[in-house]
Specification:
mainly alpha, two-stranded antiparallel sheet, 8 helices, elongated
Length: 162
């Protein structure tokens, strides 16, 4: 945000801060954190966002009320996270949604994705689908087991694998 010394600009800034009345809300914190990840090189998560070229659309970048209104009309409630549908895309209305932690955790760029029999899911999603713990499936794959064998919910003798 640009700061100027002339009193007319200060009054405009002051009015903008008062009108939305949401500067201390969780939603405002989501908005500020989104921008900080994208534009602040000192943010610990900048390497996963701003450094990768992830930006915030102009509509939201400088207008909290625009972001707030979109959020309210698109399912925002406390306990949900802002999620980019295309993990390489920008923060903009057509690429964002509100999701729970399970969906959010499956949309990381560093997730391991497995395609099997025409279905592509993350390791966590596959584990849930076949009824085993994610760590179990991860261990099977890291132990050198084929995807086909790892995705069959069978109790294996892991000593036989080594």
């Amino acid at each position: 945000m640009e700061y100027r010394n002339d009193s007319s600009h200060f009054k405009i800034y002051e009015i903008n801060m008062i009108t939305h009345g949401g500067s201390k809300t969780k939603l405002n914190k989501v908005w500020r954190n989104m921008k900080d990840r994208c534009y602040n090189p000192n943010n610990s998560r900048y390497s996963h966002y701003g450094q990768r070229g992830i930006v915030v659309c102009e509509e939201w970048r400088n207008d909290y009320t625009s972001f707030r209104d979109w959020a309210k009309y698109n399912g925002y409630s406390e306990g949900l996270s802002l999620d980019r549908i295309n993990n390489n895309g920008m923060y903009e209305p057509s690429n964002c949604r509100w999701v729970d932690s399970v969906i959010q955790n499956n949309n990381f760029s560093r997730n391991k994705i497995i395609s099997y029999n025409g279905i592509t899911l993350s390791v966590s999603q596959w584990a849930k689908k076949i009824g085993i713990r994610r760590n179990t499936l991860d261990y099977r794959l890291k132990s050198g087991m084929s995807v086909d064998k790892a995705l069959k919910n069978i109790n294996y003798n892991y000593k036989e694998l080594k």
